[in-house]
Design goal:
With 475 residues, the chain is an alpha/beta fold. It contains 16 helices and 22 strands.
Length: 475
């Protein structure tokens, strides 16, 4: 394949989409192209377009670094004063608005036969997005972000980076305030919209969980005519979501354990680091293996099956790809550390946490093999953005923790104290206001035969505990 065939956008196309003025410092600059789009010089690949967004820092400060890393062009504000020898600048009024313009152009140039999928939900968005990519890649070229790029800049960035000839494009859409999903789904214009579930997440910014459901239902406002809404039949807010989807003219497909679900979970069997699912769709059973653990993962695979059924009549030939799909970093990855007289199993859930995902992670911990790893240890950090209900929601985890038959708990954060204090004394390892305060107690307590699950919201910085464990037991 030639370099030109691999180009994502030509400079002329970017200029046309954004209304930008091109300053080409090399011959043929405006007719050349870029192979990717970047807003971060630390991960920028040679041949990229660098977009100088203003966020925590002004991206214009990093334009020289972008060109030093091999950027082919930079999209900058019109008042950006600097020039760069042998470099191409595209000057616009507002680089963020220009990114959205490129995203719109990317959606418009996709083939009418391409399938565009949008995923939202309180829990499971990223995993579902990744499982969709895993399966749809079996059918043809598929595009999705490698990371959880689901916010006001992540969605347009993922869309702008979509090659024009893909067969399937998948976008994760998140929010923590009402009104945030609407502009993103209208950019994406999905053919299929999936809502994994609605749970008490981001309650700091909502009066009720019903309000969260309404915010999630915004995803239907971008559905293309004749689009499909795939909804969790087991969730309390299924009726509300179904009503909103129907109001948007969507065809509704449901998934879950409910006998009324279009794709129904018949059986889930844990196999340690994975599982086996039997699902029923259109009056026949479908069985497949998973390389990720947890009944919550099995539940979300049903949404994937429902999406596949919209584009292929032979779902059974595609879902075996899930046997190759493992969890992303910090979302249930497993690591075995060798120690004297045996090993310790680490389950890394440190990327994020909310009440639903915490219960799911504790259930996974409770399903581990007692014969191989006799002692179960949970290391838990605060779940953030839960508002006035925060301490109560932390304390409410007591039943799930006891059901997991966890032997010892270490906790960090002012809200996690509410759970720690209501546990039996025999299960209390140590608690501290900050994660640094439990690191020493954790590493001193661990021994061969332990399985250790670490979970908390990203802002709780539970990855520090993992680093301390790895350092203590480094080979």
């Amino acid at each position: 394949m030639t370099e030109q065939a691999r180009l994502l956008w030509t400079i002329d196309e970017i200029s046309a989409a954004t209304g930008g003025v091109v300053e080409a410092k090399i011959a043929g600059g405006s007719s050349l192209g870029v192979a990717s789009i970047s807003i971060d010089t630390r991960t920028l690949q040679p041949g990229a377009l660098f977009i100088a967004l203003k966020d925590a820092r002004d991206g214009h400060e990093f334009v020289p670094s972008a060109f030093a890393a091999g950027a082919r062009a930079a999209l900058v504000a019109r008042d950006y004063a600097a020039t760069h020898p042998d470099a191409t600048l595209i000057r616009v009024e507002d680089p963020f608005a220009a990114l959205q313009d490129i995203a719109r152009a990317a959606r418009a140039r996709l083939s009418s036969t391409a399938t565009v999928i949008a995923v939202t939900g309180s829990v499971g968005k990223t995993g579902t997005k990744d499982m969709l990519r895993c399966c749809f890649s079996e059918l043809g070229e598929t595009h999705a972000a490698d990371k959880s790029y689901n916010n006001h800049w992540g969605v347009p960035l993922t869309l702008a980076a979509t090659p024009p000839d893909v067969q399937t494009a998948i976008y994760e859409i998140g929010m923590n305030h009402a009104g945030e999903i609407t502009p993103l789904t209208k950019l994406v214009q999905p053919d299929i919209a999936i809502v994994t579930t609605v749970e008490p997440v981001h309650l700091e910014f909502f009066a009720s969980v019903a309000d969260i459901a309404e915010a999630k239902a915004e995803i239907f406002s971008g559905l293309r005519p004749g689009g499909v809404a795939i909804l969790n039949r087991d969730n309390d807010f299924y009726p509300l979501l179904a009503e909103r989807a129907a109001g948007a003219g969507a065809k509704i497909r449901s998934f879950g354990k409910s006998p009324e679900a279009d794709v129904r979970l018949v059986d889930y069997e844990s196999t340690g680091a994975g599982g086996r699912v039997t699902a029923r769709i259109d009056d026949h059973d479908l069985s497949y293996q998973l390389a990720s653990a947890g009944a919550h993962v099995a539940q979300n695979t049903l949404a994937v099956v429902a999406a596949l059924a919209e584009v292929t009549s032979d779902v059974g030939k595609v879902v075996p790809a899930l046997a190759k799909f493992g969890p992303a970093a910090g979302r249930g990855t497993r690591e075995v550390l060798s120690v004297s007289d045996g090993s310790i199993l680490i389950i890394d859930e440190s990327y994020n946490a909310n009440p639903a995902s915490m219960r799911a992670a504790l259930a996974v911990l409770g399903s581990t093999d007692r014969k191989k790893y006799p002692r179960r240890i949970a290391i838990l950090g605060d779940m953030l953005e839960l508002g006035d209900s925060s301490r109560a929601l932390h304390a409410d985890l007591r039943a799930a923790l006891l059901a997991s038959d966890t032997d010892l708990v270490f906790a960090a954060g002012p809200n996690m104290e509410a759970l720690f204090q209501c546990l039996p004394q025999t299960k209390r390892g140590a608690w501290a206001e900050r994660v640094e305060g439990i690191e020493t107690a954790v590493v001193r307590a661990l021994q061969a035969g332990d399985v250790v699950m670490v979970k908390g919201s990203l802002g709780s910085r539970m990855a520090r505990v993992l680093a301390a464990i790895r350092k203590e037991f480094a080979a």
